[in-house]
Each structure stands twice: as structure tokens, then as C-alpha cells.
Design a protein that fits this description.
The protein is an alpha/beta fold. The protein contains four helices and five strands. It has a single domain, classed as Transcription Regulator spoIIAA, CATH 3.30.750.24. The protein has a five-stranded mixed beta sheet.
Length: 120
């Protein structure tokens, strides 16, 4: 079987509005090759200063240091950085956040609903 680039999932599955929040669904492998697409989606979601931005990581299978850096960059685009929330990371993604120490800097929630309801 060919596991070439053409079979990769798009990194940005969708962006939805939930009230005055933006929910960005990311998926597949997030790395150097698609960091620009993720960065553009995060910047676009932060544009216009929504009350919060929730990054749904439930379908992300892998994240490298470039992708983690993009999350940090995205957060700087929101006036209230506490309103940039991560939701539903799987085991691998959670481990990447812990190893990098980012789990201490980001508000990480078990589900998108929990992130939408959290105090910011």
C-alpha cells in the first residue's frame, strides 16, 4: 500500500462558530509540511477578536515541534490569551503537550463542550 503524501488528511478539518467562539477542528499529522495551513486557520479564527478560540485536537494523530510552535503563535493573536483553549487531545497529542511543557501554558480540556463552557 502506498502511504504517500496524497493520503494525508487535511490538517484543518473545519472552522465553526459557536456563539461568539470559534472552534477549529484539526486532524491527521500536524508537522512542518502543513504548519502554514494550520497557522493561517488559527490566525483567521483569532481575527476579529472572538470571545474564545477552541482548537479541537480529537482527530490529530501526531504533532511535531513545528505544530506546537504554531499553537503558541496562534495564541498570541488573541488579546486574552487565556481564551485560546485546546480540546480533546488524544494520547499522542497529550504526550507531545506534556513533553514540551505546553500543557502548563495552555488551558487543555477533555472536550470541546468543556472548553466552550470554561472560564476565560
Amino acid at each position: 500500500m502506498d502511504h504517500g503524501g496524497s493520503l494525508r488528511k487535511p490538517p484543518v478539518i473545519g472552522i465553526e462558530e459557536s456563539g461568539d467562539a470559534q472552534v477549529i477542528r484539526l486532524g491527521g499529522e500536524l508537522d512542518l509540511y502543513n504548519a502554514d495551513a494550520v497557522r493561517e486557520a488559527l490566525f483567521a479564527a483569532c481575527n476579529g477578536g472572538p470571545s474564545r478560540v477552541v482548537v479541537d485536537l480529537s482527530e490529530v494523530e501526531f504533532m511535531d515541534s513545528t505544530a506546537l510552535g504554531v499553537l503558541i503563535e496562534g495564541r498570541t493573536k488573541l488579546p486574552n490569551r487565556k481564551a485560546f483553549l485546546l480540546a480533546a487531545p488524544g494520547l499522542e497529542t497529550k504526550r507531545a503537550l506534556q513533553i514540551s511543557g505546553l500543557d502548563r501554558h495552555f488551558s487543555v480540556h477533555d472536550s470541546v463542550d468543556e472548553a466552550l463552557a470554561a472560564e476565560v
